[in-house]
Amino acid sequence: MDSKSLIEKLELMPHPEGGYYKETYRSEELINKDDLPLRFNDDRNFSTGIYYLLENEDFSAFHRIKSDEMWHFYAGTTLLIHEITAKGNYIIHRLGNNLNKDDKFQLVIPHGSWFASEVEDKNSFSFVGCTVSPGFDFNDFEMAKSINLSNDHPNLKNIIKRLCAK
Q: How far apart are CA 13 and CA 151, in angstroms?
């Protein structure tokens, strides 16, 4: 199956950070704001899940969320996930099925990390899933501004400029 078929058959929509997505799960139960860490301003669903697809030269721009996000590989080629941790460390994660290159089928990006992703093979696509807990809410989503992130991490200026929306 190719990326266009997946987008059509699964009714994926353009995502604000780049690529295509569709929410596949949102728990009905909520965690009360008072039981969540202070970084959350409101109640949150226990968990949410999405399909996510990147193709060719598309990328998911640097952003961060207030929850941990678990990534799951489904199809296509390796997805490179660029993470700048809360402590400022830079890590490239490999999400895919090429175990000879140390790909992982699952990985977690901790809350507060800046992260962006891109398809390793620019002539292909990566079809993955993301599970967020506490559940994803766009109020918890922050897109990076290239100038600010570069000022905070001048040693990563080139990758930040390449994978930032602004």
A: 33
C-beta of residue 23 within 8 angstroms of C-beta of residue 48: yes
- What's 104's DSSP letter? B
**What percent of the chain is predicted at pLDDT more than 70?**
100
Residue listed under structure tokens 């078929």: 5
Pairing between strand 30-31 and 44-45? antiparallel
166: pLDDT strictly greater than 90: no
pTM of the model: 0.94
- C-beta separation of 117 from 152 below 8 A: no
Tokens of 15: 């995502």
The angle formed by the CA atoms of residues 108, 121 and 158, to the nearest 5 degrees, is 70
Is-contact 86 110, C-beta < 8 A?
Answer: yes
Alpha carbons within 13 angstroms on the beta-carbon side of residue 74 total 16
- Residue 81 to residue 120: CA distance in whole angstroms: 10
